[in-house]
Design brief:
6-stranded antiparallel β-sheet; Alpha-Beta Plaits; binds 2-acetamido-2-deoxy-beta-D-glucopyranose; Immunoglobulin-like
């Protein structure tokens, strides 16, 4: 064999090996064909995400300055191709597309690029039928589905081969004319990530409005903390149980006479919505925190409306909402035993809602002290009753020996005066602090203390539906005017 032949064979073998290792790829780069990259069409830079795997692209007719080639002056726009990852080419993949909202005549296809290097893959949306007069502003939407096995790429990050150096999600497209002579490229950016969910800022407001009371009640400052602690504990455990994330812990934010506001935030609207079904029950629970041990309106809320609202907003949208309210009026009771005007504000006198406790006059007694004030009157026959004549309490006659008198102190007096307790007719269950006959100046700020044996509980001594509370009437000398109050140990 001649040396030359041997050499040729060796060369041939080498060439065949090269072919096997890397089959000839005439077009190593997207769009893997010979075509003019300067043309009249492009895709606008920003992709619009429509949800459910649907991404939309806007076509723009944009002829480069000075371009007079047919690609710029005549070419139509028949198809768009995207450079995509080979792994997305799974059998049975469902891709759909729309042009201006109408499904394209042919479904998009994912395929190997015939003239590209090994594995080069494209998604092709064709039969668009666009041209220079109707392409501008056309919207092409591609919906990324999966096959029946759930396989496939459903995000642009998964699907697209980004240009060198670009982050995942950036896509390269080529816009082809019918004759495939023109293929101007476009690089399009993925939609910005959705903004983080807006927190659901939420307040629980406990509010009081006067409906018919001349004696408005104000939440004492210390009860704000009590209510807030109970509401927060209750809400927090409800949120935990529902799996709702609280991003701003709830805290007392307003404590005024007629409003206790406890505010915080749920991490998102969705978090707050986990509680929506329970919201009315929660509001009712919060209301019962305020009505407290009686399970109904406490007497000091007579003539008030008590409302508890749960009020949430995310941005400007409402998120968690509920309201519960109760309108408070006086309980009907069989006291006093005479007929007189018991209404609040019948006369200018009122008892403060809570009594205080102090050591008694004797070592064996305790004093329960009731304080009095003046209030505006309602119109009626008693509105100019100005003498604070006596006070009568609803007391337990069986314990008549256990009250050791009243210690009284009109405004202006430095010491208590002791007067004996006198009882009404048998069966009236009425014990009287009398005579007083104070004028307005003496009555406003005055004090009347029951001196009761330490062995006796006020719960037993005072009668009526509010356990631990005492009913009393403030009489004028005519006995026709007798506004009634229930005085408790605390809210
Ligand atoms: C997503 O698909 C579901 C089911 O096909 C449909 O009910 C829902 O309306 C779609 N959402 C959007 C934003 O298109
Ligand atoms: C563009 O296409 C529309 C619809 O197919 C057709 O009516 C119109 O004549 C075409 N315009 C040009 C400039 O080809
Ligand atoms: C909230 O308080 C109410 C009444 O105090 C109670 O019945 C309820 O179980 C509490 N709820 C939670 C979630 O703690
Ligand atoms: C609640 O508010 C009080 C006073 O406004 C503040 O001192 C406290 O740190 C707050 N607590 C939380 C958990 O934010
Ligand atoms: C609840 O109280 C807050 C003040 O802390 C106030 O800004 C808000 O408007 C109140 N919401 C309702 C529903 O009254
Ligand atoms: C109390 O009595 C009055 C008059 O007898 C009646 O109109 C009212 O409904 C009663 N209220 C309640 C709460 O029972
Ligand atoms: C108030 O006092 C006057 C004079 O003492 C009396 O005539 C009148 O009846 C009283 N009552 C009202 C409601 O004005
Ligand atoms: C008040 O009581 C004190 C001590 O019991 C006594 O010294 C004083 O004189 C009394 N003052 C009046 C005005 O009664």
């Amino acid at each position: 064999m001649r040396v030359g032949t041997v050499l040729s064979i060796a060369l041939l073998v080498a060439f065949v090996q090269v072919l096997k290792a890397a089959p000839t790829s005439p077009f190593p780069n997207f769009p893997y064909c010979e075509c003019d990259p300067i043309g009249a069409y492009k895709l606008e830079q920003n992709i619009i995400f429509k949800g459910n795997g649907t991404y939309c692209f806007k076509v723009k007719v944009d002829v480069p300055a000075g371009c007079t080639s047919p690609c710029c002056t005549q070419a139509d726009l028949k198809k768009v191709e995207f450079s995509v990852n080979q792994k997305c080419d799974v059998p049975g993949l469902l891709l759909t597309a729309t042009l201006n909202g109408v499904p394209t005549t042919v479904n998009p296809n994912i395929e190997l690029a015939a003239q590209g290097p090994t594995g080069a893959t494209i998604v092709k949306i064709t039969q668009l039928g666009l041209n220079l007069s109707n392409a501008n502003g056309a919207e092409i939407c591609l919906t990324l589905g999966t096959n029946r096995a759930g396989k496939g790429c459903t995000t642009l990050e998964d699907l697209c081969v980004p240009p060198a150096g670009a982050p995942p999600g950036v896509c390269t497209a080529a816009l082809f004319s019918s004759d495939t002579d023109c293929c101007p490229p476009s690089v399009v950016n993925p939609p910005p990530p959705p903004p983080p969910p807006a927190p659901c800022a939420t307040c629980i407001n406990i509010s009081l409005t006067v409906t018919s009371s001349p004696f408005p009640y104000n939440f004492p400052p210390e009860v704000c903390d009590t209510y807030a602690a109970a509401v927060i504990a209750n809400l927090t455990s409800a949120a935990e149980a529902a799996g709702a994330t609280i991003s701003v812990p709830f805290n007392l934010s307003t404590c005024s006479g007629n409003l206790v506001s406890i505010c915080g935030a749920f991490a998102s609207e969705a978090d707050s919505m986990l509680l929506q079904d329970a919201a009315n029950d929660l509001a009712a629970d919060f209301l019962s925190i305020v009505t407290g041990r009686f399970g109904t309106c406490p007497p000091y809320l007579e003539g008030h409306n008590l409302a508890v609202s749960i009020d949430g907003t995310a941005d400007t949208r409402p998120c968690l909402n509920a309201i519960q309210s109760i309108s408070c009026s006086r309980e009907n009771v069989s006291f006093p035993k005479c007929i007189c005007d018991t209404r609040l504000g019948a006369t200018p006198y009122a008892a403060l809602p809570f009594y205080s406790v102090q050591p008694g006059r004797l070592k064996t007694t305790t004093q329960y002290c009731f304080k009095f004030t003046t209030i505006p009157t309602i119109t009626g026959p008693c509105s100019n009753a100005t003498i604070f004549s006596k006070v009568e309490f609803w007391g337990n006659e069986n314990l008549r020996r256990n009250i050791r008198g009243f210690a009284i102190k009109p405004t202006g007096a430095t010491n208590y005066t002791i007067i004996s307790a006198s009882w009404g007719a048998r069966g009236d269950e009425t014990v009287k602090a009398t005579p007083l006959n104070w004028n307005i100046g003496q009555a406003a700020g005055s004090e009347i203390c029951m001196d009761i044996d330490t062995t006796i509980s006020l719960k037993d001594f005072c009668l009526g539906p509010f356990s631990g509370g005492c009913y009393l009437n403030i009489f004028d000398p005519t006995r026709k005017c007798c506004p009634m109050f229930v005085v408790l140990d605390g809210p």
